[in-house]
Amino acid sequence: MRLAIEQAELARGHTGDNPWVGCAIVSPQGQVLGVGYTRGPGEHHAEISAATDAASRGHSIVGATLYSTLEPCSFHGRTPACAHSIVARGLGRVVTSIRDPNPKVDGAGIRILQQGGVQVLEGVSQVEVWQQLGSWIVGHHPHAIIRELDALVASDRAGQLLSVAAKYAVHPSVIAALIAFTGPSDER
Fold first, then answer.
1. In what order do the strands lie in the sheet with 22-26?
2. How many other CB atoms are there within 10 angstroms of residue 126's CB atom?
3. Architecture category of domain 2-132 in CATH
4. Residue among 6, 9, 47, 187 flagged as catalytic
5. Domain map of the chain by residue range?
6. 8 A C-beta contact, residue 107 and residue 74
7. What's this model's pTM, rounded to 2 decimal places?
8. For the segment 133-150, what is each residue's pLDDT rounded down to a tens digit?
């Protein structure tokens, strides 16, 4: 996962409205077969970039493990769904850090993989990836943070702000502004 996180940093600032995601594909023997990161809008996502890199090196990825900092996408937007591509390419296992907060995905990519016979392990290095993608999540999917705040105990507002701000590596004032902008959950 460390290599995938490093790949994600190469994408930061170059993905438009897409998250900066990194990926590494590793053989059952531990050999790195391919690496990649998300490109600009309409271009390859990290998983496809890594599969393409492996193919360019002459490696088969059948039965390999794919490490991705974010859950593979599940719908065809500007590019085909990565989860379907992973199944079609015969990868045996996918390891992710966090689920995609996009409501169109949010677990659907994981379900596609599992239904396609791919083993899935979630939560590896999740704290680091929440922080790495924190500003993207705040900017593009603030509802995910609000949903999380709603689940916390209401009596500890200051603690909530600090906890969630630290998780996403943003200033507590950003979280406070999200709450002020959206209002309490019972008013939405």
1. 32-37, 22-26, 65-70, 93-98, 119-121
2. 16
3. 3-Layer(aba) Sandwich (3.40)
4. 47
5. 2-132, 141-187
6. no
7. 0.82
8. 988 888 888 777 777 766
